[in-house]
Amino acid sequence: RGCEGIAKGTAKILGLTKEKLIGLCSNVLLDTELGIGRYVTLVERRKPSLTNRLVRKLISKVNVFSASRYFYNIVYKPFVDKMRYDDILFITGGDMMCYDDNEVNYTNNLAYNKGIKSVLWGCSIGRNNLTPAKIDTLKKFSCIYARESLSYELLMSLNLKNVLLFPDPAFVLLPEECSLPILFKNGNVIGINLSNYVVGGDNLNTEFGLEVRKLIDYIISNTD
User: Fold this and answer.
1) Can you name the residues that pair with 24 across neighbouring β-strands?
2) For 137-150, how does the pLDDT look when each residue is reduced to its tens digit (9 = 90+)?
3) Lower Cβ count inside 10 Å, N or C end of the chain?
4) What predicted TM-score, i.e. pTM, was given to this entire model?
5) Share of the chain above pLDDT 90, in %
6) CB 28 within 8 A of CB 46
7) Is-contact 145 119, C-beta < 8 A?
């Protein structure tokens, strides 16, 4: 899994003990099962109460941006407030800048205003993802680590400082052998890696999902 691989790879690259690496996550149990707890001290992010969620919904009817800011203030501000001047904020969601203005802007701006160094780590971003708010917060990062050349060239074209180009940090991890179903030994196999973000939900009853079904039907009918 992408984000988990980045977290593990980052820990190996930095070479620090897990006591010095604090990871804010939405599900400590799941991240522990995925092995991240061996590399990073996991802290579960604050969960908004039912009242918080209702207030957010009401605010969103007036202004979506204000509703998001209200939510981020509850979930992320307590964590950033605990950071000291000699801490560094690593934002490790590789594709987080590919979506709408989100918690990356909020948390980085908080850190910047506190005088804390921040790093956008192993990131990808496209020109069509840029917004004025994103460009503003990109300028506030102490370092930006792009994981492929297209993002690097885009970031450099914005005259940003301290932009580096390296492969995805997950690639420092060693491969792990795992047992596979017997069908992998009997012939050709095609693997399809689906993102629920791209599919448009958790099922295939979407426009993209129907195209995936057509592909599977074609493979079953026309290949071995």
Assistant:
1) 43
2) 999 999 999 999 99
3) C
4) 0.79
5) 55
6) no
7) yes
